[in-house]
Amino acid sequence: MIPMVNPALRVLPEIILTLFGILVMLADAVMAKASSRKPLGWLAVLGALAALAASLWQNRLPAGDAFYGVVRTDAFSVFFHVLIAGIVLASLLIALDAVSDTTEGLGELFALILFGAVGMMFMTSAVELLLVFIALEISSISTYIMAGFRRKSAKGPESALKYFLLGSFATAFFLYGIALVFGATGTTRIPEIASAIAAGHTPAIIYIGLAMLIVGLGFKVSAAPFHVWTPDVYEGAPSPVVALMSTAPKAAAFAVLLRIVYGAFPLLHDHWTPILWWLAVLSMTIGNLGALRQRNVKRLLAYSSIAHAGYLLVAFAALSADGIAAASFYAVAYAIMNVGIFAVISHAGGYEDRLTLIDDYRGLAWRSPLLGGVMAFFLISLIGIPFTGGFFGKFYVFVAALHSGLIWLAIIGLVNSGIAAWYYLRVATAIYSRPSESSPVHSLPRPSLALLLALVITVSGTLILGIFPGGVLSSARAAAATYTSVSPVPSSSGTSAADTTAQH
Amino acid sequence: MLNESILTLITFVPALGAAVVFLLPRRGRVIPAFALLVTLVTFVLSLHLPWHYDYAQRGFQFAVNVPWIAHPAIHYHLGIDGLSLWLVLLTTFLGPIGVLVSWRAIEHRTKEFYSLFLLQQTAMIGVFVALDLFLYYAFWELSLVPMAILIAMFGRRRGPRAALKFFVYTFLPSALLLVAILWLYAQTGTFDFVQLQARLASGGFASGALWWVSLAFLVAFAVKVPVFPLHGWLADVIEEAPTAMAMVVAGKLGLYSLFRFNLGLFPAQARELAPLLVAVGVIGLLYGALVALAQTDVRRVVAYAILSNLSFCTIGIFCFSLSGLNGAVYQTINEGLSGGAILVLIAFLYERYGSFDMTQYGGLASRLPMLCTLWVVTTLALVGLPLMNGFVGEFLVLSGSFPVHPGWIAAATIGVILSAAYMLWMAQRIFYGQQSLLVSERPHLDLGLREHLTLWPMAILMIVMGLASPFWMKAIDPAMSSLANHPAATPLAAPATATSMPEPLPQGGAR
């Protein structure tokens, strides 16, 4: 622990977001009922920018704990903080573009996005399981509410209720897992759990506890077989919210999963690897096969997000140094391209989802070359074509898998990505087909400044990740390096063993 | 100085042009003219390569090798040898022709068309010059995307379907290719082609695993060529794609990769599979020829003619005799040139008469003498008339492979005869005989300046390549000699696999 650093600085991004959230909420209450809430959105954007800057600044702090070892800032937490702040920023811009001045409850929406982000950020920096749980709840409750924001549409409440019921079930699992782990080790602090296990004679309930933690988080990242809620929730929630909830809470949950399996249970490596192996295979396969049958674009992307969670879990099954870096990198690549495609969907479909089916997107590129081209670009990145972030993420994950000798996992994964090409291309070909006379793409709104900003951020991010991944890659490796001191190195391949030692 | 950056320039000038196209106004013919300029500049730049190529030296030239990504170790490594030299030239040569042939055919959304067209040029050139497997794979996959979008957006009525078929056909095997590449990296710690070649040749790998890896490479490339049972996408794509894309979609990328990787990295495994591929090649040759004979749509005739001609290259490759390999390279270039020319001619014919059905034509020779002349020149090049480029390639392949597989090659010669039959028959039905209704009721406009500019360079090159083949061969031959069987010289096979060579080496033609 480094006593010189003021503990408040270790949670600076969270503090900033909370303050801005409160500010937005208060301003919403005092503003005239009829006036537009869009300025509040720009205020929230400002907050997200400040949080982003604060997160980047945290990189200069020495790694260490605060608040009696509950919160930890290190390269890992900073990495995910920056990612979450970036996603929130882009999602706010997307929301600003999609909503109209009269959209109901807009101020609350912006405040909820900020509050949810506070929870997600705490998830990535917490090293105390109880704080992880609280942060998970903060993030989840905001997303439950946002999922049902279109109260007048039939699908909105369904989406929120389904998400809420299954979500609270999953958090219960998570909480029960914490209890069992506490019972087995006598602590809920992640580093202490690791040392308790290392000290030996931990009772067998720790395995059940670990399994429950994985189930709870598996739900949050929508890994199969805990994925059933995803398509319905994505379909019913407003598109800007889906842009956020399909990326940021997932990235945070993956960060927690990384913290838990590599931080608390590195010695049980042989026990959780097979579980994650199967979760990865099931998620990839079920996600992709499910997506093949979809006609609704948002449902299709929901299944695609299940598949991408599977690709990410492949990295968990790999060895630690490569695996953590690959998983972190993939989380970034996936988040950027997914937010990007939802930016297009949310603009083209609007807050009320005018475009739902793949056929509705016919001729988008003919009607608006910009939107069509950008959407095709993100589809290409989701397929995993080189020079995009999607490709490099996948590449890095499967390099890690093959380094660890997981040939079958790599083959299953890449065959899956071949299958995935089919359904992404169905959307892409629809975009590039000629539109019919009555096609809804003829009534597209003009792109707003907010949308253009969001597209610039996501497109350039995806290209940078695909062409010059070096910067993000080295940050991801620095994040991964925070774990190598505690993880065992079951070395089966000379190269990765050399990599691990190079980290020290 | 220029020698180090020339490959980078040639590769990325089109991509840069693609970016600039987006900024140009849509007015008039600004965009096609600019695309033409970019492709011409690229072509002129690429002329530097044969000019300064050191024909005496082996190995890769004009090389540039700088680290790109530190971990995993990926280098920006470019270089060419005698094989890729001419394929780069072929690609840059066909660039301006592709623009000229699209000049009138593409009226709407020119910005999208030409920027994707230029991006496609970058991807194809990149495939030929990349010597880092990651970089190579990146270009290989990239070459799918503009192609698929262009087919979907600018193809004929069923373009989107053809694009989807093309993409899925080629993408699935590419996924397995990526597994194979990553496996090689995991085993050796390098993506560098030269280093990998040395590592693999020194042995020490489980031959079973290497066999699977080489198979993943082979299938990915065979689909792209396409080799006979994997050709399902070809006819649809040739039929639906805009001409500029149909010209480049088949052949060179896949064949180049077979040469470079299957022969270069896995010589022993390639020899194990050789008898199968020769058989498949001959079947494809005959099958393509027979199907072509039965078509009345000129594009489908050409599609199956292309399948048939490409099978020729497969046969030449997998006989491993030096002249067979040389012939296969020559034939790869010919296919790009003559196959492209016939597709251009078909496009010009269609622009005049609006039909691809050859039964509707007849007696065109007297009305369009120039078009007819060039069509006949191209036809003769495709059927392999002596003094034309096709003859050199076919002769080398047949004479080189006959001693190795006399039975199969005897069957292949039937394919040569059939190719003459369907190509000449097509020319006869379109240009000679009674003038058809379609021909007589339309105005007859012979080739204009743009069309002359498109066709003559190709026609002249076909004849020059037939007369002066040593000019090309002096680069191809050294590159191929290291891949061929040398009965007396060094054994190529790794020790672990040396025993499993089912085919006897060519021994003076005796069998």
Global mean pLDDT of chain B: 87
Identify low-pLDDT runs of chain A: 486-504
Order of helices and strands of chain A: HHHEEHHHHHHHHHHHHHHHHHHH
Number of strands of chain B: 2
Helix content class of chain B: over 70%
Strand order of the largest sheet of chain A: 1-2
Q: Which chain pair has the greatest contact? A: A-B, 42 and 37 residues
Rg over CA atoms of chain B: 22 Å
CA-CA gap between termini of chain B: 53 Å
Which radius of gyration of chain A do the C-alpha atoms yield?
22 Å
What is the SS-derived class of chain B? mainly alpha
Low-confidence region ranges of chain B: 487-511
Q: Give the number of domains of chain A.
A: 1
Regarding quaternary structure, what we see is heterodimer
Shape of chain B: globular
User: What kind of sheet is the major sheet of chain B?
Assistant: 2 strands, antiparallel
**What gross morphology of chain A would you assign?**
globular
Q: N-to-C terminal Cα separation of chain A, in Å?
A: 20 Å
Number of helices of chain B: 21
Structure, explained:
- The complex is a heterodimer of chains A (504) and B (511).
- Chain A has 22 helices and two strands.
- Mean pLDDT of chain A is 88; it is low at 486-504.
- Chain A has one domain (7-503).
- In chain A, strands 1-2 form a two-stranded antiparallel ribbon.
- Chain A is mainly alpha-helical and 504 residues long.
- Chain A has helices at 7-10, 12-30, 38-58, 75-98, 106-125, 129-147, 155-185, 190-198, 205-220, 229-236, 239-245, 248-264, 269-292, 297-317, 320-349, 364-367, 369-383, 389-403, 407-432, 449-467, 470-481, 494-502, and strands at 64-66, 71-73.
- Chain B has 511 residues and is mainly alpha-helical.
- Chain B has a domain at 274-511.
- Helices cover 70% and strands 3% of the residues of chain B.
- Chain B has helices spanning 2-21, 30-52, 82-102, 110-129, 133-142, 144-154, 159-188, 193-201, 207-224, 234-240, 243-249, 252-263, 267-293, 298-317, 322-353, 369-383, 389-401, 406-431, 437-441, 449-467, 469-481; strands at 61-69, 74-80.
- Chain B is globular.
- Mean pLDDT of chain B is 87; it is low at 487-511.
- Chains A and B meet through helix 17, helix 18, helix 19 and helix 21 of A and helix 5, helix 6 and helix 7 of B.
